[in-house]
Amino acid sequence: MEFAGEDYFRFMAYERAADAVHNAPPLADLALAGELTSLPGIGKSIAEKIQSILETGTCGYLEELRAQYPPRLMEVLTVPGIGIKTARMLFEQFEIGSLADLEAALEDGTLAGAPRLGKKSIENLRRGILASKGRSRRWPLGVARPIAEALIEYLRANVRADNLIAAGSLRRAEPTVGDIDVICTSGEPDAVIKAFASFSRAQAVLAEGSTKGSIWLETGLQIDLRVLPAHLFGNLLQHFTGSREHNIQLREMAVRKNLRVSENGILNLETGDNITCTTEEEVYSALGLAFIPPELRLGLGEIDAARNGTLPRSIELADLRGEFHMHSRYSDGANTLEEMVEACAVRGYAYHAISDHSQYPTRGGDVGLTPEAARRQRDHVRGLGNRFGIRTLCASEVDVRPDGSLVFDERTLAEFDLVIASVHTGTNASRDEMTRRMIAACENPYVSIIGHPTGRYVDETSDFAGYEFDYDAVFAAAARTGTALEIDGHPARLDLPSALARRAKGFGVTFTCDSDAHSIPALGNVSYAVGQARRAWLEPADVLNTRSLEAVLAFVAQKRASAALPANKH
DNA sequence: GCCGTTTTCGGCCCGACTGTTTTCAGTCG
Hints:
Strand order of the largest sheet: 11-12-15-16-17-18-19
Oligomer: single chain
Largest sheet: 7 strands, parallel
């Protein structure tokens, strides 16, 4: 649209709509429910185009544009320093329609004399092409966060700085991030930047100014550090946390009140007063809003909620009294049963469940426990008694067969305190088959939790979006049957995805936040689950493992009691 | 193309940085 010279605000509308789609639950569900225009930035026209794309794979307008321009033209825009104006000029005057065309033109000097492209710009483009080749990837949260934490620890030990914090997508707990933004306040910014540039894992220093530095790690991951004056910390943290769409909406709202919001303060356009804030709370308060947790800042209704006082009381890690999903050496875990129990006690949990796998076949052979082995494990757990000062529930992560039945029979299931049902195999079944399978699992009276419900994976190479099923139908079944849906904190899973979890909450579903730990350190992954739960607007009351042990057991017992009832009773 | 606690028409976030065009356009986040 930009190449075609389309009106700026028109293609901006598409860009904002694309952003909303990226953060929304699957569009097929919304389209079916006639809810596409409920997404912010999607009106009648774009909804019609989405409908067409869902039905036919494309839409008329897109095909019109595709016919006008070579398919690889967009590559040129990925080069840092080339925006739409330059790309258009290169296409129209030099017939550059791909990255390869651009590289060739830079080689043979045909770009000499091009408007606004001097010697320095040409050189920057050469470097930019090299940079762009290693940079298009995104990084899983589970990879980026430990790196940010290591950097912050290093700076804390070596410089005089306060308010060291990772902002940006990391702070919003996005499942993947494009880079790491760290900010801090200090009276000695030069020394801070210098120490930053000397970070042992830095492979290249891209910028080393007086208030901002950029480094590349050997993997190509970029880290930016900004050092700021303390009296502006609130404004800056708010600005650098984003998201872009959240900031746009916030500033649009502020403009209607004659206020101009930026990282430099909140300027009252009538009086000329500039309000600077040392905390984010002050920023939101100055705009008449309640504090919005970073994980909610996606431009998906949080600003209205902050104005109306209808924001959730977001769940926090400290709300968890235990968790349900972890493995020991009995199946594929790295630590012994005792080690896992003790580690959970050390974390301060009142209770936890050991949920080793049931037996199921994999390409590498069977994994998991037979019913007999599960019974031996149960006796082992019972024998621990209160040795570690924590209540250990005997649980199992039981595999769901393609027909929706579980690999353990009812008698075996009844012997566990708690059962998690998970799909690990046969994931290429049709949408209808998978929907029936998931609903059958929910309807099993012994299943209290559905583990990693969509099967999606998060990493830099795989875009496996999980197995397809009718999410709304399964959410309704989970709510109706009293089955909790897990938010799995394994950084490669983060499943349920937050957009789906937020939708499921609308059906009245109960959730769990679990680590899915296969080792002691991985118990910490439960914090990723909490981050996704916050992005889904979940409150403590929505999450089973914020409740007392008695309440958890009652949740399990209530559903099991339905096993004694005839079908169709409720 | 979207949207509205003044508005269904007439607006649309904000600033830093860079290179080059001696006053600013283009890019980026």
